[in-house]
Specification:
binds adenosine-5'-triphosphate; four-stranded antiparallel beta sheet; 249 residues; six-stranded mixed beta sheet
């Protein structure tokens, strides 16, 4: 526990097996508060399983998973962990298509209140201000009154990131945000995540190397369930083990 001091997310010697196969195998990783980290690695490296462990969806067989210096995540379930401030964005956007962009954000702000209750209730000044702030962060101010269904794929992804922000998480786990995006959307997404980091700790899993380069952050390369290399993109790209297991394919 003491080693987790000063960290927002701390994994030490974490392992999990499925039917005798070690999907995560002695994985150790530490993110500082406000840090953004890119995680890359070949298919089956364990990236999704690592996020499942952090969010409480999968319980590790072994190892420490510590959030915010002292919270042992292996003792909490998914709902608790989300409530404590770890938000996860899956690859596919899941916005409410039949509601406006602003109402999607309002629904996320309101959390557990029902849809009708929330949309019929008088919006508070604080809620209105927070929605404007998020619209600005995700650069969708001009689309606020449009239905989410009418957004482009990239814009839906940004809205979903905004919906996560509305829940005010300390940590955001983001799975392949650039998948299916145009080049321009990909670069805009990198900019968006850079705006979010600092105030939030962000872990991004991504295969698109142009995107990872645009993030300009420390990269962790996973392979066979553990860390193969860590450092700048240039540093890990020059690592012979990384080239052999991933980039050289
Ligand atoms: N519930 C499960 N039961 C059995 N095997 C699993 C389970 N979840 C994951 N695995 C296996 O664990 C390994 C790691 O999978 P994981 O999905 O975490 O990799 P990944 O790095 O996210 O890959 P990708 O880039 O393809 O998403 C894979 O070999 C996968 O088949």
């Amino acid at each position: 526990m003491e080693f987790a001091r000063g960290s927002m997310l701390y994994l030490d010697d974490v392992s999990v097996s499925f039917d005798g196969f070690k999907a995560i195998n002695g994985l150790s990783l530490m993110l500082a508060p406000g840090e953004m980290r890119a995680v890359i690695g070949p298919n089956g490296a364990g990236k999704t399983t690592m996020m499942d462990i952090i969010t409480g969806k999968t319980r590790p067989d072994h190892g420490d998973v510590i959030f915010d210096q002292s919270i042992d995540l292996t003792r909490h379930d998914e709902t608790d962990i989300a409530r404590m401030g770890i938000g996860r964005k899956f690859q596919k956007p899941t916005v409410f298509e039949t509601h406006t962009v602003a109402d999607n954000l309002l629904l996320s702000l309101a959390g557990k209140r029902g849809v009708f209750e929330t949309l019929l209730a008088q919006i508070t000044g604080a809620e209105a201000r927070r929605i404007e702030e998020i619209l600005e962060t995700i650069r969708l101010e001009e689309r606020r009154d449009d239905l989410a269904a009418d957004l482009s794929h990239g814009q839906k992804q940004w809205l979903e990131i905004g919906m996560l922000l509305a829940q005010d998480p300390k940590v955001l786990l983001v799975d392949e945000p650039a998948a299916g995006m145009t080049d321009a959307e990909t670069m805009a997404t990198a900019d968006l995540l850079k705006r979010i980091a600092g105030e939030h700790t962000v872990m991004v899993v991504e295969h698109d190397m142009e995107f990872v380069r645009a993030l300009g952050v420390k990269v962790t390369v996973l392979n066979e369930g553990s860390v193969l290399a860590e450092g700048s993109l240039d540093h890990v790209s020059a690592d012979p083990h990384v080239i052999e297991s991933y980039l050289g394919r």
